[in-house]
Specification:
Elements lengths: L11 H28 L21 H9 L2 H32 L5 H10 L9 H10 L6 H5 L6 H13 L2 H9 L4 H12 L1 H16 L3 H6 L8 H6 L9 H32 L4
Helix pairs in contact: 1-13, 2-13, 3-7, 3-10, 8-9, 10-13
Length: about 280
């Protein structure tokens, strides 16, 4: 019996796959590359026709000028406090509620969970006025409490943690229960440490949502001292004139914290998505 030469698989599909991946990557990166290029142009160079892909003479001073034209130091501090409070609040509420919906048996649990999921169908813009009236009645307008107080619960986060806790083997909890641990002890010492990937995923999404939030900080704050980064960036866009290089320079700096956070939490983020069954 003769054995013929090994059959070589065609490299065509892999080349096509890499080409499509490269095209998609460039398509997604194009706006960011254009933003960086614009941030280094002169104020009038932006309006040249045909548009320039690269600045004629990079204006690195745009970054200094943009960050000093507005009190961006205060804006960054406000955004950091706003995002940190929201991350901590959503992690606490999502972890406890998610565990309750996943493991505790109480009357009306499933109906209450479906009711909570139903709130995700309500557009966020619809509840803007009720949220403002609430913080105005409490005297929280133009304060950190009013800025973050209505953002401490994420229904999507509750759903994410519920799905993750349901994937935790019950044998681990049963073993702790046989050792005399109560529900809170089981949650704190057994289930919660195993949910670190899901917590990191939720924390990353919560931070990004808070950091890039524009409409609610614009409504809930009045003074310049309470403005956030996104509101500060939008302030470069006027009715009659817009300083695009300054606006893009401030936007580039605003993206850096998100990139750093994703770089440190990427491993937990991917694992959390895989374990909760999302694609």
């Amino acid at each position: 019996m003769t054995v013929g030469p090994p059959v070589r698989r065609s490299a065509g599909p892999s080349v096509v796959t890499w080409a499509l991946t490269l095209v998609l990557a460039l398509t997604m990166l194009a706006p960011f590359l254009w933003m960086i290029s614009t941030s280094l142009m002169g104020e009038l160079e932006v309006y040249e026709f045909p548009p320039r892909l690269l600045p004629r003479d990079p204006q690195w001073g745009n970054y200094v000028g943009a960050l000093t034209a507005r009190p961006f130091g205060r804006y960054f501090l406000n955004s950091l406090i706003f995002a940190a409070v929201i991350v901590l609040g959503q992690l606490a509420t999502a972890a406890t509620a998610g565990y309750a919906f996943a493991r505790l048996d109480f009357k009306g649990r499933d109906r209450l969970f479906l009711l909570a999921l139903g709130t995700m169908m309500v557009p966020a813009v619809v509840v803007l006025i009720p949220r403002f009236l609430l913080i105005d009645a409490l005297g929280w307008v133009d304060t950190y409490a009013g800025l973050a107080g209505t953002e401490l619960v994420s229904v999507w986060g509750v759903f994410l943690l519920r799905q993750y806790f349901r994937s935790v083997p019950r044998e681990l909890e049963d073993a702790a229960r046989m050792d005399g641990a109560g529900p809170w002890r089981i949650f704190w010492s057994v289930s919660l440490p195993l949910a670190r990937p899901a917590l990191a995923t939720l924390g990353l999404f919560a931070f990004i949502e808070a950091w890039k939030s524009l409409l609610w900080p614009l409504i809930a704050t009045r003074s310049m001292a309470m403005r956030t980064v996104e509101v500060g960036i939008a302030s470069f866009h006027g009715v009659f004139v817009t300083n695009w290089p300054y606006q893009m320079a401030a936007a580039v700096v605003a993206v850096v914290p998100v990139l750093l956070l994703f770089a440190f939490t990427q491993r937990y983020f991917v694992r959390g998505i895989q374990m909760t069954g999302f694609k």
